[in-house]
Design brief:
With about 140 residues, the chain is an alpha+beta fold. The chain has five helices and six strands, in the order H-E-E-H-E-E-E-H-H-E-H.
Length: about 140
Amino acid sequence: MGRSANKQPRVEDGSDAVEPENVMIAARAAAEKKATDEVVLDLREVASFTEYFLICTGASTRQVQAISNSVEDELRKAGRRPSHIEGYSSAEWILLDYGDFIVHVFSAASRRFYDLERLWRDAKRVELPADVTSQRQGSRPE
């Protein structure tokens, strides 16, 4: 609202759709814990159960849990609590359901296996702001 338009993430198809602030809070929190390969998918045109996915990867079970904790903590500060959390104890794939968006924190092996980007390939990718992408390290496992 009071922000410069060029700081808002955009859908990569060139549209001017501004993405929800809470998804970007989650993306920044994940990046601060060194999550890799962060992807935001805009599901509004292809799904009815949620609007966005944030997908990212952690290098170990501890890091997957740390990323999840960071996302949950930062969103709690913004007044949001997940309605449902799955997979925390095994930390292969932690799902944080916020209703209008879902955060998926994967181990590298689980991300390759489930390949949500392929399953939801009709969804538009959202360009992440520079303060998130500049913290990325590594690349998506093949």
